[in-house]
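Example 3.2
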Amino acid sequence: MTDRAVRPLLFLDVDGTLLPYRGARLPSTPQGWEDCQDVSNPQLANIDVGHGPRLLALPCDLMWATAWMEDANEVIAPPLGLPALPVTDLPDVPQKYEADTLNWKTRALVRAAAGHPFIWVDDSITDIDHARVSTHHREHALLQRVDSMIGPTDTDFAVIDDWLLEPIQHPWRTQRRD
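Structure, written as tokens:
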């Protein structure tokens, strides 16, 4: 007999994460960022299509956590071979990022996790985000910061795999009773 608790969520960022910058000139206006969220974006060639199967194989529920919102399902999911994923309800993207402040997504992700264990993969996670999650989220959470120039690496996936497979800390794992 097996018991299965709620699976953890995995919140996925796009820009600087699944879509690494690799030296690209970044937009400097909100309209410039909107224009990038299209299938004509030449940066899409930087997507590692091998990430899709790796993400799908993880024992968690994938969700977009990106300013791309629904556009991620139309532009990013197809080359990765991902189905349409739920989109996390995020606040408006700030016009300006200030150093040493909480990431604009952090509160929304803690709220969206609502008692679920979760993983957040992003290129802009800081110690401030770690502190906020540890004090405002009662379940386990892994905040995995990736290098914005290259995106998730084998090492990042190994950290995620290890976190998901830790049976003592993670009660969602299927456990066998004899």
